[in-house]
């Protein structure tokens, strides 16, 4: 479970790096460029030095916060119930969900130890407007299949889902959120996500304090 969380964390950060590139590149070229940029940060000797590691990790976090299309991700994760959210609730959810993802995934990148990414193929759909870019994360013992589902939006490629061993990140969260929304309203979901984000932040702070 911890390994899968790490792989999802790495995929999440690579996914964030992808969205800045223009659509004049293919989806696969865009994904490869994003992977190169993030892996270069993780392979920087400064990432292993306790004195400089926080600055490098901040650069990775900045990639996520600045480049990831959280509006697209939030909309697809909540699903049809998104129509029930007011504009204010949509913004509050997006902020809370951004915090949750950041606090959940960024910290596990501390476990990065030279794992590689190998791109293996792509599946094109919707007249080239949607592409699933397939790759493998290579550890010393095993290769884990990963895929980015990408679409062309406003002149650039963005990732709207990531699959680890065939399991959709969006579907995983959507299933959790569906149960909460079935018993409550959008505000209940927002408050639950806010609370979980705070819980993850406190865990990280306790770990950093040791």
Blueprint of the fold:
Layout: H1 2-18, H2 27-43, H3 53-67, H4 70-78, H5 87-105, E1 116-125, E2 130-138, E3 143-153, E4 156-164, E5 167-168, H6 169-183, H7 186-209
Antiparallel strand pairs: 1-2, 2-3, 3-4, 4-5
- Kindly report how far apart the N and C termini lie: 23 Å
Order of secondary-structure elements? HHHHHEEEEEHH
Look at the structure and give the mean pLDDT. 82
Rough shape?
A: globular
Helix content: 55-70%
Which stretches of 5+ consecutive residues score pLDDT under 50? none
Task: Profile the largest sheet.
Answer: 5 strands, antiparallel
In total, the number of strands is 5
Strand-pairing-aware structural class: alpha+beta
- Proportion of beta-strand residues: 15-25%
Strand order of the largest sheet: 1-2-3-4-5
Rg result: 17 Å
Q: How many H/I helices?
A: 7
Textual characterization of the structure:
- By secondary structure, the chain is of the alpha+beta class.
- It contains seven helices and five strands.
- The protein has helices at 2-18, 27-43, 53-67, 70-78, 87-105, 169-183, 186-209, and strands at residues 116-125, 130-138, 143-153, 156-164, 167-168.
- The longest helix is centred in the last third of the chain and has 24 residues, at 186-209.
- The protein is globular.
